[in-house]
Write a structure and sequence with these properties.
- There is one protein chain.
- The chain is mainly alpha-helical and 64 residues long.
- It has one domain.
- It has three helices and no strands.
- The protein has helices spanning 2-9, 21-41, 48-62.
- Helix 2 (21-41) crosses helix 3.
- The chain is elongated.
């Protein structure tokens, strides 16, 4: 609730170059879905475990 107040009521922005956890999580999900889609076009079927590992790799690589 406090985060909502600071962001939307008090209009305090995050420091430049930082994204909120919701945006960070959404970006990692989108990257994983893009990988799934691109590789399906190439007829490669990823297992759930492969996608999970890719997602976690992207999380670790981009976490700050």
């Amino acid at each position: 609730m406090q985060q909502y107040k600071l962001r939307y009521i008090d209009r305090i922005e995050l420091p430049e170059g930082r994204e909120e956890i919701e945006a960070f999580l959404g970006s990692r999900v989108l990257e994983t879905l893009e990988k799934l889609h691109k590789e399906l076009i190439l007829t490669k079927r990823n297992t759930l475990e492969e996608l999970r590992h890719y997602y976690l790799f992207q999380w670790e690589k981009n976490w700050n």
